[in-house]
Specification:
Helix content: over 70%
CATH topology: DNA polymerase, domain 1
Number of domains: 1
Largest sheet: none
Distance between the termini: 16 Å
Structural class: mainly alpha
CATH class: Mainly Alpha
Length: about 80
Amino acid sequence: MSSPDLAALVPSWELALRAERKAPLTIKVYAQGVRQYLRWCSDNDRPLVLDRHQLAGFVDSLLTAGLQAATARSRQLGVRRFSA
């Protein structure tokens, strides 16, 4: 599946999160993390897979870009939740 294909699934995933009664801010942050991850994969010619090594690379890129650890962690949680 390509990045645009996965990106097209994000709105329905957000709907599922709303059905689970997740807080609006949680949904926004999780979705932002997924979109950032997909963009990172595309920009860095990475395959669209989720494994420990690749997710660590994504988180490292966020920290290197100056994001706080808590922000990077919330993005990571969004990606993990999306892949579950």
